[in-house]
Amino acid sequence: MQREAYSQPWEYRDVTDGTSRDPWPVVIPHDAVLAMARVPDAHQMASGYFPGGKWEYRTRIFAPAHWRDRHVVLEFEAIHRSAAVFVNGDLAIRQPSGSTSLVVELDAFLRYGVENEIVVEARADRDARWYTGGGIIRPVHLAVGPRVHVPLDGVVVTTPEHDAEASLVQIITTVRNLESVPVVRWLETSITSPSDDLVGVDRTRVSVPAGGEAEVSQRMLVEAPLRWSVDSPDLYRVTSRLTSGAGGEGQTDHGDVLFGVRSLHLDARRGLRVNGQPVKLRGACVHADNGVIGGATFDAAEERRVAILKSAGFNAIRSAHQPMSRAMLDACDRLGMLVMDELTDVWTRAKSPEDGSDVFLERWRSDLEAMVRKDRNHPCVIIYSIGNEIPEAATRSGSELTRALAAATRALDPTRYVTAAVNGALFVMDGAIDIDPERLGGASLDPVAEINARSMSLEDRMSSLALTDAVAELTEEAYGALDIAGMNYQDARYVLDHERYPHRVIVGSETFPTRIDRLWGLVLANPHVIGDFTWTGWDYLGEPGLGRMHYRDDQPGSGALGAYPFLISLAGDIDITGERRPASYYREIVFGLRAEPFIAVRRPHTRGREMKAAPWSWTDSIQSWTWPDAGTDPLEVEIYCDAAEVELFVAGSSLGRQPAGASHGYRALFAVPYAPGRLEAVALRDGLPAERAALQTAGTDRRLALRAKLSTPDTGGQRLAFVVVELVDDVGVRATDGDLEVEVDIDGPGELQGFGSARPETEESFSGSRHRLYDGRALAVVRPTGAGRIVVIASAPGLPSASVEVQAV
After folding, report:
1. Quick check: 625 and 575 in contact, CB under 8 A?
2. Could you tell me if 382 and 422 are in contact, meaning their C-beta atoms sit under 8 angstroms apart?
3. If residue 412 lies in a helix (H) or strand (E), which one and from where to where?
4. At a CB cut-off of 8 Å and minimum separation 6, what does 630 contact?
5. Separation of alpha carbons 391 and 422, rounded Å
6. CA-to-CA distance for 79 and 104, rounded, in angstroms?
7. How would you classify the pairing of strands 166-177 and 155-162?
8. pLDDT, tens digit, for every residue of 222-261?
9. What is the rounded CA–CA span in Å between residue 540 and residue 568?
10. pLDDT one-digit tens code per residue, 35-84
11. Where are the alpha helices (DSSP H) in 216-280?
């Protein structure tokens, strides 16, 4: 059976307060939360102060008479959360999880020759530690096939043996028979190359029992295979044809699966190898929301995120903390990005009031199977994570559950590695386990009442606790059940663990972004440490203010993390509009991928103030030399550079040289009196000028400028146009000092899917057509509603309007 996008219209109603309202049409995927009014209620802080709700979606499917002899499936990739699906008034399925697919087999519910009503109920409220959105947040598919068919995700492709000369491709196909009598079919399986050449074909007879299944194994040799890797993401295609005749006549079912030829090897001496080549994971933890369009998972937005993350130097993504969408997996396959896919943030101990921990024991096997069935043909997926910071993993029952989850994952897919993101320090810091203080070796467990103080001391506390015998003992069995020890903020254990557990392979599954220079040095120096996943690669909604910078002179109470109207985490290398922040360029330099220096200027309000940063906080700096209100005191200018020295020039005059490079944390700090003009940094190698970077002050003649990029057709589902709106001067230099309110209008077959900026504190909505720029920038996401010319027009008070055209086909 083959998935097809479900294209029938949907109606939506908000039923949160039980009031009967008229439904209105919506496009799926749909985030029911994003348009809701935020509330300054501390109980809703984790979600970015968005309240919860209950929603109802309704659609109608006409079932023609010939469907009586067919098998009909409606698949929801994800409904957040606690979903119930009704068909013609009858309950068809429930799914507590908000990120696990629901496959509704409609045969028993359909009425033929008439329309059938599908009703979906969902709710979300305080069920995660971040913003999740709510409703039918991922795509819906309809599959109609014969009663003897290959079920969805019923083809598994592996490449168990391969080298430069040839690759053995093993294809295991499940054939399902819903008839009441045994049947005989013929299965023809072909392989085509990335250039669409036929490179293998096999045909075999299949006898399938009544009401049962048959599993068919076919093995074919592909000569001179093109191997999938992050640098060469070549994809082959398997096409399955099920026929009633031995000669291929009477086709009854067909389907396609993409796969890659690649091998994985892992050990503590040689680390991770892909196709025999050592690979260090330059990883980004990424939440599921997509900024100004919220939790709605459009294929085009997922592909854009992967492309931007890769351009910033990442080669791996950890899906935090829920299974990755099919669209993002497809994009990682096409673009060349490795994936650690994660099952959940909770097991049996709740972290949020309604997070599903109460049904975990009943649901984990089916949720795990759904994730693995989705992932197992994707060459990008190399690691499964069975949980994030699970406090009960240190207990006896938790250890048993860890082993059960790991064993079940391997049974479902023995070709990937299993990990869990474990934070041993939290086992004792959160009081999950009773600990004798003497076993902590002097590390403090004293409570920290004030949230800022807790944040500022968090790294030191975690490091000191990580080194204790207590944490080593509490994590020993959990790590022993895994293929890779996932360590959250436990880099202090990297070297120590290699001495105590010489066969243990470690990955920094979650790390502080401000320490990447030291962390990456540890990764490179230790073969058993295979990579680092920063928190976080892409900024996200919820956990508001996690990465906010604080200062010693903040007024008491004014610096509380997440105070309303904070909306955004502010911990990402890349902001919610897709723009790289200074931390991203710093990381690229540390990774050894960028030779040019980077200039970041701290905002004037930071001058002379002592920072007390949380370990997720970057300095409050931006890439700009436009500061008309700077005053007379010097500005602090950060230069990131891998060269031993860097020289800074203002208007052609040198301000001197300073050491940089690895021995100085890849940073130099200059005090620079502000004067409009050109600011230039020059890397010095062996004392000689080398690479350069410059900033130019924006002029006073300002205008709006729009840049649009329409997603490619092969992203599937609805296409999107991403329109960057900026305030610039007459030569195109961005004016970061002009945060005007901009209104966006659409002329032509398109609708505004979302519009907003990366401003961390705001009461503006992403669902409206007006939004203030932040540092002179905003992003509008436009969804074409048909073919034709779409004109996106932006206007602001006192400026001429600007426009950009998109041609949708």
Report:
1. no
2. no
3. helix 396-412
4. 604, 674
5. 9
6. 13
7. antiparallel
8. 999 999 999 999 999 999 999 998 887 888 899 999 999 9
9. 6
10. 999 999 989 999 999 999 999 999 999 999 999 999 999 999 999 999 99
11. none
Q: Which SS3 state, helix, strand or coil, does residue 221 take?
A: strand
Regarding pTM above 0.85, the answer is: yes
**Residue 61 bridge partners (DSSP):** 116
**Listed residue (17, 48, 50) closest to 36, CA to CA:** 50
Confidence bin at 556 (pLDDT 50/70/90) = low
> In 567-590, which positions are buried (b, 16+ CB within 10 angstroms) versus exposed (e)?
bbbbbbbbbbbbbbbbbbbbbbbb
What is the residue type of 1? M
Answer yes or no: are the C-beta atoms of 529 and 279 closer than 8 Å: no
Rounded Cα–Cα distance for residues 636 and 384 (Å)? 43
Which of 154, 9, 132 shows the shortest CA–CA distance to 71?
154
Mean pLDDT lowest among 87-91, 445-449, 472-476, 798-802: 445-449
Q: Whole-angstrom Cα distance, residue 317 to residue 298?
A: 18
Residue 189 in tokens? 């399986």
CA distance 788 to 777: 27
How far apart, in whole angstroms, are the C-alpha atoms of residue 92 and residue 110?
11
Contact 138, 164 (CB under 8 A): no
Long-range contacts, stretch 61-66, CB < 8 angstroms, 24+ apart: 61/8, 61/106, 61/110, 61/115, 61/116, 61/118, 61/142, 62/114, 62/115, 62/116, 63/106, 63/110, 63/111, 63/112, 63/113, 63/114, 63/115, 63/116, 64/112, 64/113, 65/112, 65/113
Q: CA-CA distance, 57 to 135, in Å (whole number)?
A: 8
Report the amino acid identity of residue 737.
D
- Tens of pLDDT, residue by residue over 744-786, are 999 999 999 999 999 999 999 999 999 999 999 999 999 999 9
**DSSP per-residue string spanning 141-159:** EEEEEESEE--TT-EEEEE
Nearest Cα to Cα of residue 504 among 425, 419, 415: 419
Report how far residue 424's alpha carbon sits from residue 353's, in angstroms, rounded to the nearest whole number: 23
Range 621-629 average pLDDT: 97
Average pLDDT over residues 470-490: 94
> What's the gap between Cα 61 and its chain centre?
33
State the Cα–Cα distance between residues 570 and 291, nearest whole angstrom. 12
Strand partners, 141: 5, 75
Domains of the chain: 4-145 (2.60.120.260), 155-259 (2.60.40.10), 264-582 (3.20.20.80), 593-623+627-696 (2.60.40.10), 702-808 (2.60.40.10)
Q: What is the mean pLDDT of residues 712-739?
A: 89
Amino acid found at 45: M
Among 60, 199, 43, residue whose Cα is nearest residue 119: 60
Among residues of the chain, what percentage have pLDDT more than 70? 95
Q: Which of 115-124, 430-439, 591-600, 715-724 has the lowest mean pLDDT?
A: 430-439
Instruction: Name the 3-class secondary structure at 61.
Output: strand
Q: What is the pLDDT of residues 523-536, one digit of tens each?
A: 999 999 999 999 99
8 Å CB contact between 620 and 626: no
| Contact status, residue 380 vs residue 337, Cβ threshold 8 Å | yes
Strand intervals (E) in 106-235? 115-124, 140-146, 148-149, 155-162, 166-177, 183-192, 198-208, 213-223
Whats the size of the chain, residue-wise? Answer: 809
Contact present, 126 and 47 (Cβ < 8 Å):
yes
